[in-house]
Amino acid sequence: MSEPARARPRLSVEPVETLDDADLAALCEATDAAIIDGGGFGWVNPPGRRALESYYRGVLLVPERELIVARMDGMVVGSAHLVKPPKNNEAQSFSAQLMHAFVAPYARGHGLARMLTLGVESRARELGYHVLNLDVRETQTAAIHMYEALGYEKWGTHPNYALVRGRIVQGFYYCKRLRQKKAQVAET
Q1: How many CB atoms are located within 10 Å of the residue 125 CB?
Q2: Is residue 23 pLDDT above 80, yes or no?
Q3: Residue 47 and residue 55: Cα distance in Å, rounded?
């Protein structure tokens, strides 16, 4: 006898300006799971629920940051930050940064990380940015493959990027042009 076919989960990605208690709890749970799995969020050990709740509430207050969440069947299972340049950095005002992207281990394998990255790219384009930058630990091989498959160009390596469980690991720097440069007209 065969098993019944499972329904595909409903997947979505969206920027959020507020988090209700249920979304905040789900986001903290997903963050803990990703950290424990070595998910590259920046923390090596879960900081505790109170610290995570304060962290995410703070992210929502920073004008230069946008929180974009990934949902599976309506529940928050991952997120990423779109970080805008500060107002005093006019020279780099055309570029933004993708930071702290993760999907909880229990929600992986459905394409949500790709959707999340494309969602950040879409939001960055919508806001008028031409370039998106990111950095990632060398140990995040799945993320590295995904970013490269999405057209991110590796431009640098930091040999002493992070200290994880007593081991120094490298970090890789990537960028992606979101808009093509306008052709310059040569003066005659």
Answers
A1: 14
A2: yes
A3: 10
